[in-house]
Every structure is written in C-alpha cells, then in structure tokens.
Design goal:
Elements: E1 3-9, E2 12-21, E3 26-30, H1 44-49, E4 53-57, H2 74-88, E5 93-98, H3 100-112, E6 117-123, H4 142-167, H5 170-173, H6 180-191, H7 195-204, E7 220-225, E8 247-252, H8 259-262, H9 264-276, E9 288-290
Parallel strand pairs: 3-4, 3-5, 5-6, 6-7, 7-8, 8-9
Antiparallel strand pairs: 1-2, 2-4
Helix pairs in contact: 2-3, 4-6, 4-7
C-alpha cells in the first residue's frame, strides 16, 4: 500500500496512506470526519471516466494512515497535504475537500499559496470560523463543542450514531438517499478510526480561517446543503461570498451535510462543470442552486 512519511512519533514514522489512479489533470480528494478516502466513491469513478487523475488519502488517525497522538491541527494537516503533493510532484492540481477537508484546502492555500494549485472545490464547508466570539457573533457557542468532546469520551460509538443520523439527515432522506447499509458502512469506518483522533479533531473545528480566506486566489467552488445539521449553511457557506475573491456558491436545496453521497447527480455535475471550465468561476450567492 502506498504511503508518504510526514513525521515521527517516538521514533516511528507517521505515514499517510494514499491511492493514485488514472491520468490527466490531477485532482486531490480530501475526506471529512469521521470517514476516510473511500468516502469519495460516488465522485471518484465519475472523475476517472472524465479523464482526471484522482488522488485520495486518509487523514492521520483515520483509515489506513498512521494513528499518532500528535499533529491534530490544521497547520499539521496542511503540512501533510503539502508532503503528499511534494511526494507525487503534482503541479496544476485541483484540490477538492469535504467537511474537515475544506479546512485543509483553506489552510493549505493560506499558508503555501497557489503556485501548484489550479482550482479549489469545497463541499460542506467549515470556514470561515465556527466558534462564537465577540468579533464572531454568528458562530456557535463553545459549550456545544465541549459537549461533543464529553459525549465522545463517554461513548464514542453512541456519539457516532447520533452524528451520522444528522450527517445524512436520515429521518428525512432515508432510505431513498441513504440506505441502512450505506449508513452502517460509514459507522464501521468511524468506529475503526483512532479514538484519540476522533476526540482531538473536535478542537480543530474551532480553527479561525478568516486570515486564510483572502489568500485564496484561484477559482473556488463551494457546495453546501441548505439542511446541513453539522455545519449549518448560514454559519458557514453563506458567509463566504466576499471573503474569497473568485467564488461560486451552490446551495443544494434540502441537502444534508454529506451531499456528495445523498445528492451525487447534482454534486458531480457541478464539480465536473467547474473543473472543466476555463477562466473565472465568479458568481454570487443564489445565482445557482441544485435541487433535491
């Protein structure tokens, strides 16, 4: 299995597992919490059949990557992504992130710049800043995240049950858009992740990306479900126009957090249109909507 070393813990290498398929324009897929790179299975075949080279990897602590107790912050996550791009000698790459993966896209561009990046796409975004503070009154109270950490420590499997029900809006979209078996598959992946990583990643959700966003100078696509219960649309995607210069925002009507699974037709069409388009992707919020 291919891995790239991104550091050490107690003398042992920390390795990031990745898969690299196809040829042509490279697209790097960055998964969300608490899943792994396999969660892109409704996007990868479409990208491959459209002539893209698809690279996807497992974040440290998840999937087949190493499970260290260090490095659960977005500077390190972006450094892991940079190490992978260096290892594969990728240029003119398209970065596509979902949920926590949108933080890697944002912090990577804010830190390393866009010299090797052609476009960026983000689904179910975490920026600009989730935590409610005096200068961020539209954020979420910190007690919410403390409650999440307490729930994980008490019984992370019970927490994943509640989390994934809201991840897919099972009460509204099951079984037509999310089957019991697909839900169980996500639960199995979550349960197999590092207990430490599933707890430590909660604090990363409170990362302030507001200084990174003005540095994103490539065409950027954001797709977000209007019924997202994990990262509510109004607190996240709706705030991004004006913060990213060249932005296309698509609100997926009725979509939950993981629109890539529940609404693949709309997501894949928009993604392929965006990646295949020359020039600017500039549009304003509300200009395009995908419907359930």
């Amino acid at each position: 299995m291919p891995h790239v070393s991104v550091g050490t813990e107690n003398g042992e290498h920390i390795k990031i597992y990745y898969e690299d398929h196809g040829s042509g324009q490279p697209v790097v897929l960055i998964h969300g919490y608490p899943l792994n790179g396999d969660s892109w299975e409704r996007q990868e075949p479409v990208l491959l059949s459209s002539g893209y080279r698809v690279i996807r990897y497992d974040r440290r602590g998840f999937g087949r990557s190493s499970r260290p107790t260090t490095g659960y912050d977005y500077d390190t996550f972006a450094g892991d992504l940079n190490a992978l791009l260096d290892h594969l000698k990728l240029e003119e790459v398209d970065l596509v992130g979902f949920s926590m993966g949108t933080g890697e896209v944002t912090r990577y561009l804010g830190t390393y710049g866009s010299a090797r990046v052609r476009k960026a796409a983000m689904l179910g975004v975490i920026p600009p800043f989730l935590l409610k503070t005096d200068d961020n009154p539209d954020g979420v109270d910190g007690e919410v995240f403390e409650g999440i950490k307490s729930a994980i420590l008490k019984d992370r499997y019970a927490y994943f049950k509640d989390f994934l029900d809201n991840f897919y809006n099972v009460d509204k979209l099951g079984p037509e858009r999310i089957s019991e078996q697909a839900w169980q598959g996500s639960f199995n992946v979550a349960a197999g992740s590092s207990p430490h990583a599933t707890y430590a990643c909660v604090d990363t959700w409170l990362t302030d990306f507001r200084d990174d966003l003005p540095n994103i100078d490539v065409p950027t696509l954001v797709m977000h479900g209007t019924e997202d219960r994990i990262l509510p649309f109004d607190a996240t995607a709706k705030r991004l126009p004006g913060l990213i210069a060249d932005l296309e925002l698509i609100a997926v009507e009725g979509g939950p957090h993981n629109i890539g699974w529940t609404h693949p037709e709309e997501v894949n069409k928009a993604l392929l249109d965006f990646l295949g388009r020359d020039g600017s992707a500039r549009e304003t919020v509300g200009a395009r909507h995908a419907t359930a």
